[in-house]
Amino acid sequence: MTDSKKVVVVGAGWAGLGATYQLAKQGYDVTLLEAGSQTGGLVAGWKTEGGRSVEAGIHGFWYPYRNIFSLVKELELDPFTDWTRSAQYSPAGLEVESPIFQELPRLPSPLGTFAYTQFKRLPLSDRLSALPLMYAVVDFDNSDQAWQRYDGMTARELFRQYGVSERLYRESFEPMLLVGLFAPGEQCSAAAALGMLYYFILAHQADFDVVWCRGTVGEKIFKPWGDRIQNLSGKILYDQRVSDICVDEFDKVTAVTCGDEKFDADAVIFGVGISGIQKIVAGSKTLQKRREFRNLMNLGAIDVLAVRLWCDRKVNVPRPSNACFGFDKTTGWTFFDLNALHDEYTDETVSVIEVDFYHANQFLPLDNQEIIEIVQNYLTSCIPEFANAKIIDSSVIRLPRAVTHFAPGSYQHLLRAVTSFPNLYMSGDWVITNHGSWSQEKAYVTGLEAANLVIQQLSQGNMTQILPIEADEPHIQIARSLNQTLRNTVNSLLSGFLGLS
Ligand SMILES: Cc1cc2nc3c(=O)[nH]c(=O)nc-3n(C[C@H](O)[C@H](O)[C@H](O)COP(=O)(O)OP(=O)(O)OC[C@H]3O[C@@H](n4cnc5c(N)ncnc54)[C@H](O)[C@@H]3O)c2cc1C
Fold first, then answer.
1. Does the reported pTM lie above 0.85?
2. DSSP 6-40
């Protein structure tokens, strides 16, 4: 180990732990520095003083999360529920029920999604108004050019431009944006909206199928994963807030600093969120000198709120996971029946319910009691039985500026894994990758990609195999290739016409 190359990884979320694990497996002298007191980042879980399990919001693992599923298998863990059905509510009651798509006869995408989703009120004519949008779905192929074409437009403009009816937008697409990108359509990049919707819903029929951890993700995945890293001699140090980097005369990073403490490194991987990197840049003269890092100050992050309620009785919640819209114009929320999802509550005689709010700006200043009253009222609109339940315990976790905001025009400021410092790499769910995944899977994949770049540079060990997302279905491949040919022809005709070539 004494001759091993030293790597410092910053941030112990999916990205940072993913990188640390791969490097520890390849025999690197790897140190993971985490500002908080546990692993998991946005997915961290812990116990309250009263011994109740809580976490920073419930996290689903969708069908295309191939790399996370493969990791869990490699770690020999068994953390997940079976595939679950979900529902959608508005103040008018139940709106949509989703089946387990992989159990139904497979149709070419996105027909299965449209045919098998059970809309309770939304008229067929509104649903059919989504058809023209398929052109944008085909045209957005996750390439750099596609991001640049669509990123300047808001998702709201995109749906309007393609003739999506007001009602379909309000009752279907905007709720998906609020839950998938944590922001309303007028604040989301159209590129991010297309990428996210394709990955989670449209690419293959089964993509919307989801599993959940049978306890907190912290306890079920991060704790044993951290132990495995430490068994491989990887070091995980808590309460270490990285404040700066040190560079030599060739711009190579030689160390990171945490206040007065210095950690030497042959390479460094950042796996911190947008707010985290902005704080580091704000205090670092070295990073501020680079335009790419200064420009990170243009990015935004979104407030979320995670509430857990213990009721005095069992309330019958038909589906374990539920998304809601129409309660607050710019806020989406979800609720989960933890008796159905978490082992520790299966035999409870009282209901334990998680309620998470995304783009929750207006709720964060309220005191806990005010928040709980709102939550109980909202739950009652969906499931009237909640009116009779008394809340006997609760946890309210405020997460200001926590999640990545894919705002219109933000793509130009996002970083890639490779930076202008030769041995400094970036990872996290906001970092540009060609992989095509989103959220936890993207964070983990970018951690693996950064680890591979370090392995390549320092020539110690073998690169990790990263599983690609499932290929586009044949008809989408044909449509994309025709579209590309048409685009190239039009471009060359135009440049010929304008005398550019
Ligand atoms: C309420 C909620 C619900 C969500 N639901 C889902 C879901 O259902 N499915 C899904 O896939 N995704 C979901 N997400 C998104 C998912 O949590 C993120 O995409 C993912 O966790 C991001 O991981 P990351 O490693 O990029 O960053 P993070 O998890 O943000 O980790 C960054 C880490 O860096 C540390 N750090 C920051 N600054 C420093 C510093 N200076 N020094 C040292 N350490 C530092 C932080 O403490 C943190 O531990 C949800 C998020 C929230 C908040």
1. yes
2. EEEEE--SHHHHHHHHHHHHTT-EEEEE-SSSSS-
